[in-house]
Design brief:
The complex is a heterodimer of chains A (298) and B (223).
Chain A: H1 2-11, H2 21-28, H3 32-66, E1 73-78, H4 82-96, E2 100-105, H5 107-115, E3 122-124, H6 129-136, E4 145-150, E5 152-156, H7 165-170, E6 177-180, H8 186-197, H9 201-204, E7 208-211, H10 214-223, E8 228-232, H11 233-239, E9 246-249, E10 258-264, H12 272-281, H13 284-292
Parallel strand pairs in A: 1-2, 1-3, 6-7, 6-8
Antiparallel strand pairs in A: 3-10, 4-10, 5-8, 5-9
Chain B: H1 4-32, H2 37-47, H3 54-65, H4 70-78, H5 87-112, H6 115-123, H7 128-139, H8 141-156, H9 160-165, H10 176-185, H11 189-214
The chains are: A alpha/beta (298), B mainly alpha (223).
Keywords (chain B): Cell membrane, Membrane, Molybdenum, Transmembrane, Transmembrane helix, Transport
Main location (chain B): membrane
Protein name (chain B): Molybdenum transport system permease
Chain lengths: 298, 223
């Protein structure tokens, strides 16, 4: 915005789209011959003005590409991080002054976008295999490292008692079970593993509805359109004071550990801000935030 | 290749089109006769899905169908139906979403028929229904075909609403457009291409049909 006003000031553009009422009134009292000259003058002024406007727009377009603050970085973050991301962004900005544009989506979707040249600097995944794939295919600077381990919960807006959740899911009390798409969302994969482990996956299948990411599963849970859903503990923390949620942490032995990996991507390889953010995520400051949101940290 | 998403899409489009013929024709007829403030408002509401983002419609349907309060709760408690994540729910959404494609062309065609046609029919002792059936409808055949085909084609292309309230359930709400989205996210471009080609061909044939039929009317495919 500041840039825009500077431009306007530099080119001395008068508002070309407003009629100049003074001249108009003045005109009506003049002879036809004089009127012509004034008209000509007006249109000339309009012309130079519109030329200036066009030039200004071009200049703006041209610099729009460049004026992205070189400091800022774009972070692709797995959907389970949505609740914690805002806190991390604020904290990081306080420490370094660097702003983060976060793009939230399922890990698989983000990997597809990055593989197709999406300009992200850092990728925070919900597992290790997606960022490893990126590294193998030459989209990441180095091998991924684990920044947190996530825990899977079963969650509902109704107090239906999760003591024996596997029996509950098969009862008539539960009509819809929200699970994130297992192919692209690691938490969805973990949920299916857990159902498989309890031996109820096939029986529960007809009740399962798939969210395209944990975010959509959270929507289904909080709006109550699904009776229960498998999600991440950070959701409960985020909504702690807004919505009452009933949940139970799923026994970690029933699914493969959710090790979440971080990589700096090729696009951010030469960006010192990306490196700063990478080190911040692995720092004690970020770790204590993650911990508060129910993640396990080393 | 699993053809169920394609069948599901065709089933959804077919049922939606049939329902809209039943609902939309009387609506268009009623709207075409005279103007009043109420009609104006109703017409505006019917036309809105043309410009309303599907996500907005999907969001409100999600709230309306939630079994925890209001309409959704009543449906859930009295009839034990849940419209979210179900095929009937998709049909309801599609009917709302494709309504303007049925009502718009039919209404404007009915308005273009000279009033003397219907009046002549009335003087000959025909009822309103007979007049509608034997005088008005035959006169708007091209527009009726256009409306029907466009409604069908538009429902084939439905995506945003289904993404919001469908839940991507194979064989229930996983229509072809959602299947394509899903496969692209998984980076399975070959399968995505299979579905896309089928949809592309069907849509092309449909639009061409309208075009060819309307050729004699000296109109473009959308008029």
């Amino acid at each position: 915005m500041a840039i825009t006003s500077v431009y306007l000031w530099c080119y001395g553009i008068k508002e070309p789209f407003l009629r100049n009422y003074d001249t108009l009134q003045y005109q009506t009292k003049l002879l036809p011959a004089r009127q012509k000259t004034i008209k000509a003058m007006q249109s000339e002024q309009y012309n130079t003005n519109s030329k200036k406007v066009i030039f200004f727009l071009f200049a703006l377009l041209f610099t729009a590409g460049l004026s992205v603050n070189a400091q800022n970085i774009r972070v692709a973050a797995a959907a389970n991080l949505q609740p914690v991301m805002e806190v991390l962004q604020k904290n990081f900005k306080q420490k370094t002054g660097i702003s983060i544009d976060a793009v939230i989506g399922s890990s698989g979707k983000l990997v597809a976008q990055i593989s197709n040249g999406a300009p992200f600097d850092v990728f925070l995944s919900a597992d290790m295999s997606f960022p490893e794939t990126l590294f193998k295919n030459g989209f990441a600077k180095e091998k991924p490292v684990v920044y947190v381990s996530g825990s899977l919960i079963i969650c509902s807006t109704q107090n239906i008692g999760f003591e024996n959740w596997e029996r509950l899911l098969l009862s008539a009390r539960v009509k819809k079970i929200a699970v994130a798409n297992p192919a692209i969302a690691p938490y969805g994969k973990a949920a299916e593993q857990s159902l498989q482990d309890k031996g109820i996956l096939d029986d529960a299948k007809p009740k399962i509805v798939y969210g395209e990411s944990i975010s959509q599963v959270n929507t289904y849970i909080t709006t109550g359109v699904a009776d229960v859903g498998f999600t991440t503990q950070s959701l409960v923390k985020e909504l702690g004071n807004k919505t009452t949620l009933y949940y139970k942490v799923i026994d970690p032995k029933t699914y493969e550990p959710i090790q979440q990996g971080i990589v700096i991507l090729k696009h951010g390889a030469d960006n010192p801000s990306a490196d700063k953010f990478y080190r911040y995520i692995l720092s004690p400051a970020a770790k204590s935030i993650f911990k508060a949101y129910g993640y396990r940290v080393q | 290749m699993d053809l169920s998403p394609i069948w599901l899409t065709l089933k959804l489009a077919g049922i939606t089109t049939l329902l809209l013929l039943l609902i939309g024709l009387p609506f268009a007829w009623w709207l075409s006769r005279g103007r009043s403030f109420i009609k104006l408002i109703i017409e505006a509401i019917i036309t809105m899905p043309l410009v309303l983002p599907p996500s907005v419609l999907g969001f409100y349907l999600l709230l309306a169908f939630s079994p925890q309060h209001g309409l959704g709760k009543w449906l859930h408690d009295t009839f034990d139906v849940q419209l979210v994540f179900s095929f009937p729910g998709l049909i309801l959404a599609s009917v709302i979403y494709s309504m303007p494609f049925m009502v718009g062309p039919v209404k404007s065609a009915l308005q273009q028929i000279p009033a003397s046609f219907a009046e002549a029919s009335y003087t000959l002792g025909k009822t309103e229904w007979q007049t509608f059936r034997y005088v008005l409808l035959p006169n708007i055949k091209p527009s009726l075909l256009t409306a029907t085909v466009l409604t069908f084609a538009h429902t084939l292309g439905e995506f945003g609403v289904v993404l919001m309230i469908g839940g991507n359930i194979p064989g229930v709400t996983r229509v072809a457009s959602i299947a394509v989205y899903d496969l692209v996210e998984k980076m399975d471009y070959a399968s995505a291409n299979n579905y896309s080609l089928i949809l592309f061909s069907i849509t092309f044939i449909l639009v061409m049909t309208v075009f060819i039929f309307n050729k004699y009317q000296a109109k473009g495919p959308l008029a």
